[in-house]
Specification:
Layout lengths: L40 H12 L4 H8 L2 H6 L5 H14 L4 H25 L3 H8 L2 H34 L3 H21 L2 H25 L4 H6 L7 H13 L4 H34 L25 H36 L9 H12 L1 H34 L5 H17 L4 H27 L2 H4 L6 H26 L4
Helix pairs in contact: 1-12, 4-11, 4-13, 5-11, 5-12, 5-13, 5-17, 6-15, 7-8, 7-15, 7-16, 7-17, 8-9, 8-15, 8-16, 9-13, 9-15, 11-19, 12-15, 12-17, 14-15, 15-16, 17-19
Length: 498
């Protein structure tokens, strides 16, 4: 029987041609790199090659990595730079243990956010939007949007300061440039693909890492002092306040909201690409022509990623890949933060003015030379660009999940840029604005962490993938500590003691 071109489902085994037996391989495990349309002979040859050369397991794992590195940008935003440098300049290696502990807590919470997205196929805002009544849903959305706006404020200002340090541009001009550049980054996600956006953000994260670690080459730390700093201890109320600010600012609410969305979109995109790969494989093995996808549309052959709906085995693979993704991403982010503290401890001990980004840059330039100062400013700029783009993405997901309305990402970016530019235009002191934004973020942390704990610990929501008892209790202890320290930080800040 002859086949009916273009009507067979992509996953079906194509019928034999001219009485030949059906082929045994019908689905390629990885695709052609040409991105050619289905009727292109080159694409058909590539698909046949893919079918006979399955993608090694390590490549399938790599295809699932990426979302955690995007979320990790929140951990190296401009708001963390001054805090870590201040800690090193004032207290040397004393508070290294705080960053190590904070990073371990972040691994737990970010993994739970990603796990929720994998198992349920929905983001944290989506799940909450389905469970809350209309008044509670609107109130929750309002506070989440306020948190997103505060995040954006710190990151736009940080990028503007970096352009001022590098090029001498006024802060308002720098803020506009950062806003336009972030819109260009978001356009990649909206008009190209999730993987393209992830690739650009990870590249910026690499620049941040080089920029903030570069100073250690010139001023290596005292490794004996670093090891001693792993022992938990404090020296007076001043070090307690700094430790509270470092630990309390570690878990960012918008990163919690966003991570569940990132893994959902990432896996759906790979799954859709896998279906296209199956379609190419079916065409190439049967020899029957299929309908061209249409003008301007190209079907690419790519690896087929499992989704949470394809069975327990697929979910297990996704969760394994997510654990790898989260651990490595936060190792990078933690290394950057620890490097900033070590740099300050080794080169800026006793330096004044390091509680502002401008002061930290001036101290680094004076102590280590203009080249290191320039590399630091470039890292700061990359941090601002990446983190403000990720923050805008998070705000879009918050609105879509809680209001069931999706505003075009670029339009939203333009609207949310206005408050940050207004605050810069009225001449607000940048460091004061950064402090204010951190206080607002502190109010939002328990409203993100506590619902996440309840959801991932619920058998009704997660089924067999509910958090184990050790994970539940560890995450609860971490969340309680973070919330308590954030409340203390807010109280001290509002009372003028911070």
């Amino acid at each position: 029987m002859s086949s009916n071109p273009g009507t067979a489902p992509p996953s079906a085994t194509p019928p034999p041609l001219d009485g030949a037996s059906a082929p045994t391989r019908t689905r390629p495990e990885h695709g052609a790199t040409t991105g050619a349309p289905l009727d292109d002979p080159v694409a058909q040859i590539a698909a046949r090659h893919a079918a006979s050369h399955p993608r090694p397991p390590r490549h399938r794992l790599l295809a699932l990595l990426g979302p955690a590195f995007v979320a990790a940008v929140a951990y190296v935003d401009p708001g963390n730079v001054a805090a870590n440098i201040t800690a090193g300049a004032r207290y040397g290696y004393l508070l290294v243990w705080v960053l190590v502990a904070a990073n371990a807590m972040a691994v737990l919470i970010q993994y739970q956010s990603a796990k929720l997205g994998i198992v349920t196929g929905r983001s944290l805002p989506q799940v909450l939007g389905e469970r809350l009544g209309r008044p509670a849903r609107l109130a929750y959305w309002a506070q989440a949007e306020l948190v997103a706006a505060a995040t954006d404020l710190a990151e736009v200002i940080g990028g503007a300061i970096a352009l001022n340090l590098l090029l001498g541009l006024p802060l308002l001009t720098g803020g506009l440039i950062v806003g336009v550049a972030s819109m260009a980054l978001l356009a990649l996600q909206e008009r190209r693909s999730q993987r393209t956006f992830e690739g650009v953000v990870v590249t910026l994260l690499i620049v941040v890492t080089i920029g903030f670690l570069g100073g250690l080459v010139v001023a290596p730390p005292d490794w004996g002092g670093t090891l001693a700093g792993l022992v938990p201890r404090l020296e007076g109320t001043g070090s307690l306040l700094v430790a509270a600010s470092m630990l309390g600012a570690t878990v960012m609410p918008h990163a919690i909201y966003l991570h569940s969305s990132l893994v959902r979109d990432h896996n759906h995109e790979l799954s859709a690409a896998g279906e296209a790969s199956q379609a190419v494989g079916a065409t190439s093995t049967s020899g029957a022509p299929q309908e061209h996808p249409g003008p301007g549309k190209t079907v690419y052959a790519a690896c087929t990623a499992p989704t949470a709906t394809t069975g327990p085995g697929s979910t297990s693979r996704l969760l394994h890949a997510t654990r790898v993704d989260v651990v490595w991403a936060l190792i990078v982010a933690g290394a950057v933060n620890i490097a900033l503290l070590l740099l300050a401890a080794s080169a800026l001990a006793g330096a004044r003015g390091t509680d502002t980004i401008e002061g930290a840059h001036a101290a680094i330039t004076a102590s280590l030379g203009p080249a290191v100062g320039t590399v630091f400013a470039i890292g700061l700029l990359a941090s601002g660009l990446a983190s403000t783009s990720v923050g805008a993405y998070a705000g879009s997901e918050i609105m879509a999940g809680l209001l069931h309305t999706r505003v075009p990402l670029l339009l939203r970016r333009g609207v949310t840029l206005v408050p940050a530019l207004v605050i810069i235009a009225v001449g607000a002191e940048p460091t004061w604005a950064l402090v204010l934004s951190q206080v607002v973020l502190s109010f939002g942390i328990p409203l993100a962490v506590v619902p996440l704990m309840r959801l991932t610990g619920s058998a009704r929501v997660m089924g067999q993938w509910r958090d184990s008892a050790p994970l539940r209790w560890s995450a609860r202890a971490a969340a309680a500590l973070i919330v308590a320290l954030n409340l203390a930080l807010v109280s001290l800040t509002l009372s003028g003691q911070a």
